[in-house]
Every structure is written in structure tokens, then in C-alpha cells.
Design goal:
With 368 residues, the protein is mainly alpha-helical. The protein has 7 helices and 2 strands. 86% of the residues lie in helices and 1% in strands. It comes from Dendroctonus ponderosae.
């Protein structure tokens, strides 16, 4: 019954160990190395259990040895009693009963030969003293001795059968304990195998966790790099948009300047068209000079008027030369301005095309 309780306790410990391992795999990863795990607890419990089984087995073996010794001593006593009984039946003189060895009691203690002799003498009745002596007294004494020996023989036979039965029970008990011990050892091996398997699974889980943490760290780095690249591209895009707006404003300003220059050019062309009528005016002036000459001749004061007209004519000619120079300068300025505007437009267009190409290339290279 005690072995059954011990086996139930062992099964309870093993099942509790298995559940605790399965439930605390993740917690045990962060546990300190100095902490005592449930495997050590189970192994200690199994060790104490096996020590208890060993002590119990030794105790049972000791009791079995004592029982066997008592059985052998009782068998020797029985054989001696049988010999005495046989001698009494044959009329031989009765030999003294040999000293009985110390025999163990049922609880394992020893009973001394003096106590057995005292009990044996108490069991025997007192010898009657015969006055007429002789053969009748010896026959009565022999009959009483035979009856006592038969009674002691029956008692010892009963004790021998009892001890044999107890020895058989002890042997059965030893067999059961050995069987329970073998079962417990098998359970221990299973628990150790399960412990090794769980430790292997734990190491695999730790390795998988470390691998996943490394992958997560790599992905976080890639995400941060992509985020920084996206931020830099966004800043570059905003910068390019600002530059584009600035260039558009410059182009608009240049267009306004070109429109103003074109207006000035149209005005100059109008003035030039007006100045193209100068030959006719010269002819008219000549005619007027002739008329003035005639009039001077006629009036005598026409010379002064001619000098004034000549001065006016010189002024007009000088103004015409200045207008021609300004017209030429305006044409040169317009040509240079047109060339500058075309150059600026082409450079701005080239830069915009290069920026758009770089941006498209960066967007294509950017990891998804």
C-alpha cells in the first residue's frame, strides 16, 4: 500500500513537472542562472523517493533474513525434538535439550535462550516423586515428557508454518517492491527523456527567438533607412519645387522684360518710320530755303532766317544720328536679351529633366 502511495506521488510529481515545463518555457528564458528549476525539484524528489525505496527494501530484506534465521533455528529445534521423541519412543535415555539460539521475535527483536528455557520449564508440569520408584516413575515421566515434547513440536510446527507464510509474504512483498522500483525507474527515465526533450525544445525556441529578433532588428534598420531616404527625397522634392517656382518667376520676369523691350522696339520702329520721311522734309526744306533765298533777296533779312533753319537742320540731323544709334543699340540689346532668355530656358529645362530623371531612378530603386 505504501509503494502504491509512493508511485502515485511520483506520477503526480512527474505530471506537475511536465505541466510546469510547458507553461513556463517563456518565463524560464529570462530566469537567472542561480534559480532552482522544476527539473531539479523533480530530480531531488525522485532521488529521495528512490532512497526511501532503497531503505524500505533493505529493511524488508533484513526482516526476511531474520525470519529465515528464525526458521532455520526452529527447524533445527524441531529436528532435535524429533530425535528426542524418537529416542524416548525407543527407550533410550533422554538427552538434554540443546541450547536454543537466540531467535528473533516477529518485530525483529531477539528472544534469548534463557527466556525460552524458562517458558519451556513453565510449560512442563512438576515431576511427581514416587516412593515405590523404579520403572513406573520413569514411564510416567517419559509419557509426560513425550506429551510436552509433542505439544512443543506442534507449537513449533505452527510457528514454522507461520514464519514460512510470513517469509512467502515477505518475498511477495519484496517482488512487488522490486517491480514498483523498476516501474519508478522507468518513470524516472521517461521523465529524464521528457526533460531532455523539453530542454532541446527550449534551446530551439531560444535560437528561433534570437533569429527572429535579428530579423526584426534588420527590418527595423531597413525601415529606418527607407524612412530617412523618403525624408531626404521629400526634402529634395520640396527644394526642387521651390527652385522650379523661382525659375518660373524668373522666366515670367524675363518675359515681362522682353514684352517691355518689344514695346520699346515698336516705338523705335515707329520713330524710325517717321524718320524715313526726312528726305521729303529735306526737299521741302530746300524748297523753303530757295523760297527764303528768294525772299531774302527780296527782303534783305532772309539770311538770318536761313542760318536759323540750317541750325535747326543740323540739330535734326544730329537727332537722327542719335536715333539711328539708339535703334542699333536696341536691336543689339534685343538680340542679346533673346539669346540670354533662350539660354536660361534651355538650362532650366535641362536641369528639370535631369532632376526628374534622378527622381524617377530613385523611386524605382527605392525598396517597396
Amino acid at each position: 500500500m505504501r509503494s502504491d502511495l509512493l508511485l502515485e506521488h511520483l506520477e503526480c510529481l512527474v505530471s506537475r513537472h511536465e505541466r510546469s515545463l510547458r507553461m513556463t518555457v517563456v518565463k524560464r528564458q529570462a530566469a537567472a542562472q542561480s534559480g532552482v528549476s522544476s527539473e531539479v525539484e523533480v530530480l531531488k524528489a525522485l532521488k529521495s523517493l528512490f532512497e526511501h525505496h532503497k531503505a524500505l527494501d533493505e529493511k524488508v530484506r533484513e526482516r526476511l533474513r531474520v525470519a529465515l534465521e528464525r526458521n532455520s533455528s526452529l527447524e533445527e529445534e524441531l529436528s532435535t525434538t524429533k530425535e528426542e521423541l524418537q529416542n524416548l519412543k525407543q527407550g533410550l535415555p533422554v538427552t538434554n535439550v540443546p541450547a536454543i539460539e537466540d531467535k528473533p521475535k516477529e518485530n525483529g527483536q531477539l528472544e534469548t535462550s534463557d527466556q525460552l528455557n524458562n517458558s519451556h520449564h513453565k510449560a512442563l508440569p512438576a515431576k511427581p516423586r514416587l516412593t515405590n520408584g523404579g520403572v513406573d516413575g520413569e514411564n510416567v515421566e517419559s509419557a509426560a515428557r513425550i506429551a510436552d515434547l509433542q505439544q512443543a513440536l506442534e507449537q513449533q510446527t505452527g510457528e514454522i508454518s507461520t514464519w514460512q507464510r510470513r517469509v512467502a509474504e515477505m518475498q511477495n512483498r519484496v517482488g512487488e517492491l522490486e517491480e514498483n522500483l523498476s516501474k519508478a525507474q522507468k518513470e524516472l527515465l521517461k521523465a529524464q527523456d521528457m526533460n531532455a526533450k523539453l530542454q532541446r525544445d527550449l534551446r530551439e525556441n531560444v535560437a528561433q527567438k534570437e533569429d527572429q529578433e535579428e530579423r526584426i532588428a534588420t527590418l527595423e534598420k531597413r525601415y529606418l533607412n527607407a524612412q530617412r531616404e523618403s525624408t531626404s527625397l521629400h526634402d529634395l522634392n520640396e527644394k526642387l519645387e521651390q527652385e522650379l517656382q523661382h525659375k518660373e518667376a524668373q522666366i515670367k520676369l524675363h518675359e515681362e522684360r522682353i514684352a517691355a523691350i518689344q514695346e520699346k522696339l515698336e516705338l523705335a520702329e515707329q520713330k524710325l518710320a517717321q524718320f524715313s520721311k526726312l528726305p521729303e522734309m529735306e526737299e521741302q526744306l530746300k524748297q523753303r530755303m530757295e523760297a527764303l533765298t528768294q525772299a531774302q533777296e527780296r527782303h534783305g533779312s532772309a539770311e538770318d532766317r536761313i542760318q536759323r533753319l540750317e541750325a535747326n537742320l543740323d540739330e535734326k540731323n544730329a537727332e537722327l544720328v542719335r536715333l539711328n544709334q539708339r535703334l542699333k543699340m536696341n536691336e543689339d540689346h534685343n538680340s542679346r536679351l533673346s539669346a540670354t532668355v533662350d539660354k536660361l530656358l534651355s538650362e532650366s529645362n535641362d536641369r528639370l529633366q535631369d532632376h526628374l530623371k534622378e527622381r524617377m531612378h530613385a523611386l524605382q530603386v527605392k525598396p517597396h
